[in-house]
Specification:
The complex is a heterodimer of chains A (457) and B (96). Chain A has 457 residues and is of the alpha/beta class. Chain A folds into two domains: 188 residues, no CATH class; 168 residues, Rossmann fold (3-Layer(aba) Sandwich), CATH 3.40.50. Chain A contains 17 helices and six strands. In chain A, strands 3-2-1-4-5-6 form a six-stranded parallel beta sheet. In chain A, α1 packs antiparallel against α2, α5 runs antiparallel to α8 and α13 runs parallel beside α17. The termini of chain A are far apart. The relative contact order of chain A is 0.09. With 96 residues, chain B is mostly helical. Classes of the chains: A alpha/beta (457), B mainly alpha (96). Chains A and B meet through α1, α2, α3, α4 and α8 of A and α1, α2, α3 and α4 of B.
């Protein structure tokens, strides 16, 4: 029976691999997800049949309750809340690893092997950090706590001490497994570390954090796999751990910031939408929807640059309506998606897909950046830092070196924003004061809807 | 170091290499569903939770295992459904 179980586990792992692989193309992505679901189902079923399970009552209860909660939450969540949902689910996965490891602790044989004890402690460490860290990420994105970094003197040293402390406790635990307090100590320190590691990171950097925590939850699963010698946990955990790490790296490269900078440099200020940010009084002219339409009437090409503000205002449907009208008039309409626009990589893509924007109109930054100089109009909606030219030359800016979209090379730039306030990097955008820039102040959804009405009427 | 542990380490290391290979080829377009999907896969912990709870040992161990099952199942079911919702929205322009 064990052989069959392990063979099915191998099949599951293979299906996970193909599942992730198929997620690589929009045509096969849905199949990829389906394969992964099948893999999970196989792993669960063969485990239930493996005769290692004696008591089914609690299992049924657990599976049913978990499924119900998962289904209800998944159906009701708004697309804009997707990033924090991923964070929450991820946190639960981390907690599950901790709980399994804890349960295993109370089922240990009288002479547990050293590697079992070591991976047990490791499971609890990684799982708990993932759990509390994910909760903080969720709170920041959901607006339950402020997005700005929370810093205090000596925090990195304190975090470092806690990590060392955990390692010490872990080592002691391996030598003295009967001492439950050591394990408890690891749990408490890990929980605190999860919080203190994430609070100094600004809300705008949450995508990187979530991706990293995603990786951790995979590693926690793998560690748990070592504890109970279960191959499917080891393989799948490693797959997820590695994929999360690569994605984190991709995101850091896109921001041109190192991971250490993201995690420790406390970049970002409170995003102040009450309208202040400029210390000097500079001339800015307010334009209206009618002005915008005049420009559209004389333009042949437009590139739309969406940002997080689009998601917040839920303006994606109005935007698609506007784009469709322009396309029906023969205009060339495309979308330029900066790698870190929005709250998660690909966030803008998901948002626009929800509004039925065909995905071949979406262009990545590298593909479209040279086209701005040949474009008549750029419409920036709810995006800021990704268009800020300051990133090219201001060496002491948090944005310096980040590749940006060359919107300033287009003939006319229209920016829809609620106010002149700076983005998360706290950097003023000189683009706002440029002569060829038209600032359209207002809520993104209202402004775009007004433009649509003027276009129609 | 016993053979079993050694084999487990081999598997772990190889799986990491495979993970790297698979992920580098995903376009930014799909990064969010990817994060959501791989997050659902990390719910594989549910297998460990099933084994822990089903072993029928002490009440404490079973209780911990039960909560582990619930959390891991939410992770799995919620994660896959949310990923599916996202992927359902990617469609090419309806030409007919």
């Amino acid at each position: 029976m064990a052989t069959i179980t392990n063979l099915v586990y191998l099949l599951s792992a293979a299906l996970f691999y193909f599942g992730l692989k198929n997620l690589g193309s929009p045509k096969t992505a849905r199949h990829g997800n389906g394969l992964a679901m099948l893999a999970m189902l196989l792993a669960v079923i063969i485990t239930l049949l493996s005769r290692q399970i004696l008591d089914f009552t609690y299992i049924i209860v657990g599976l049913v309750v978990g499924s119900l909660i998962g289904i209800i939450v998944a159906k009701k969540v708004q697309m804009t809340a997707m990033p924090q949902m991923v964070a929450l689910f991820n946190g639960l996965g981390g907690a599950a690893s901790t709980l399994v490891a804890s349960s295993e602790y109370f089922q240990l044989s009288t002479q547990p092997e050293m590697n079992v004890l070591a991976t047990l402690a490791l499971s609890i460490f990684i799982g708990t950090i993932t759990f509390t860290g994910s909760l903080i990420a969720f709170a920041k994105l959901q607006g339950l706590m402020k997005g700005a970094p929370i810093t205090y003197g000596g925090q990195h040293i304190l975090n470092g001490i806690m990590v060392v402390g955990t390692i010490v406790l872990g080592t002691l635990f391996v030598m003295e497994p009967d001492n439950f307090n050591l394990l408890l100590g690891i749990l408490v320190l890990s929980a605190i570390l999860g919080v203190t590691s994430v609070i100094p990171i600004g809300g705008a950097d949450m995508p990187v954090v979530i991706s990293l925590l995603n990786s951790y939850s995979g590693l926690a699963a793998a560690a748990t796999g070592f504890v109970i010698s279960n191959n499917v946990l080891i393989i799948s955990g490693a797959l997820v751990g590695a994929s999360g790490l690569i994605l984190t790296n991709i995101m850091c490269v896109a921001m041109n910031r190192s991971l250490t900078n993201v995690l420790f440099a406390a970049v970002g200020t409170e995003s102040d939408d009450s309208g202040g940010g400029s210390t000097e009084k500079k001339q800015v002219t307010r334009y209206t929807a009618e002005d915008a339409v005049v420009i559209f009437d004389n333009a042949e090409s437009v590139i739309i640059v969406p940002g997080y503000g689009l998601a917040v205002a839920q303006a994606q449907h109005a935007l698609q309506e506007m784009a469709q009208i322009l396309m029906d008039r023969g205009m060339n309409v495309r979308y330029a998606i900066h790698p870190v626009a929005g709250r998660m990589p690909g966030h803008m893509n998901v948002l626009l897909a929800e509004a039925n924007v065909s995905y071949d109109l979406l262009e990545e930054m590298d593909a479209i950046n040279d086209d701005f100089k040949n474009t008549d109009v750029v419409l920036v909606i709810g995006a800021n830092d990704v268009t800020n030219p300051v990133a090219r030359y201001k060496k002491d800016s948090a944005l310096y070196g980040m590749p940006i979209l060359n919107v300033d090379e287009a003939r006319t730039v229209m920016i829809i924003k609620r106010s002149l306030s700076p983005g998360f990097a706290g950097e003023e955008n000189p683009l706002f004061y440029d002569e060829k820039t038209m600032m359209l102040f207002g809520d993104a959804k209202k402004m775009v809807t007004e433009i649509v009405q003027v276009l129609k009427g | 170091m016993s053979d079993v542990i050694l084999m487990s380490i081999y598997i772990f290391v190889l799986a990491i290499f495979i993970g790297f290979e698979v992920i580098t080829k995903v376009p930014p377009l799909l990064h969010t569903p990817l994060m959501s999907g791989s997050n659902a896969i990390s719910g594989i912990t549910v297998v460990g939770a099933l084994l822990s709870t089903g072993a029928g040992h002490t009440t404490l161990a079973t209780a911990l295992g039960l909560f582990a099952i619930i959390f891991a199942t939410v992770n799995v079911v919620g994660g896959f459904m949310v990923t599916d919702r996202m992927l359902d929205m990617f469609k090419k322009e309806k030409n007919k």
